Amino acid sequence: xxxxxxxxxxxxxxxxxxxxxxxxxxxxxxxxxxxxxxxxxxxxxxxxxxxxxxxxxxxxxxxxxxxxxxxxxxxxxxxxxxxxxxxxxxxxxxxxxxxxxxxxxxxxxxxxxxxxxxxxxxxxxxxxxxxxxxxxxxxxxxxxxxxxxxxxxxxxxxxxxxxxxxxxxxxxxxxxxxxxxxxxxxxxxxxxxxxxxxxxxxxxxxxxxxxxxxxxxxxxxxxxxxxxxxxxxxxxxxxxxxxxxxxxxxxxxxxxxxxxxxxxxxxxxxxxxxxxxx
Length: 278
Ligand code: LER
Ligand code: MN
Prior knowledge:
This protein is of the alpha/beta class. The protein contains ten helices and nine strands.
């Protein structure tokens, strides 16, 4: 399993759960100094960061791009895959398609979280889920053609009324015409929605493609009350090899949040050195 830390480059969203903010190069330098394997980027659009610049910075700091977030499409432009206006749905697909193409330049998958939207008043949930599946089918196939997977993220009930648990997420992605869509287990959302984090991870099994690493209160792991040993055991049991990516509040500040995150990652996920002898 590989560690990652989030970097948000979207000034419009000041209160979101991202560890590093605003300055790409300074954030990469800090992530590399702490020993993270990769970074997850949250940008305003697919052309917000020049690919050549990102490529040379990732090379310079020896970091991988773990994933790209697409949520700015909703937060800044009001787009979702389940809007009742077909033109808005088309624009949402286009926005995500561009993000997929951007991430694919670096072998990184895009994440569909808040861009899934909601069944809004006047729209049946079944209808919204059909639109969501349509979007995931189109985008999952586009991602496959570019050699990357597409990540779909169940969110807690206060952020979407569509899919709140891994189990219903598995049902949704199994119903698609593509096998290229995988699930994101965000430990914060799961802490609200799942009866057992470990059992849900075990049941999602090979459908799991990404993990958002945050404690019960969305602070870095270790600053809340989530019991992580069972989660770690379940991830090992399903042979999960993807990123464990810190999408958490920069509490008490970005540097301490990043430090706590890598400390927790090393504590729980790094192979322990065995001592022999007495
Ligand atoms: C996105 O990964 C997510 O978890 C949402 O809650 C965005 O805030
Ligand atoms: Mn998340």
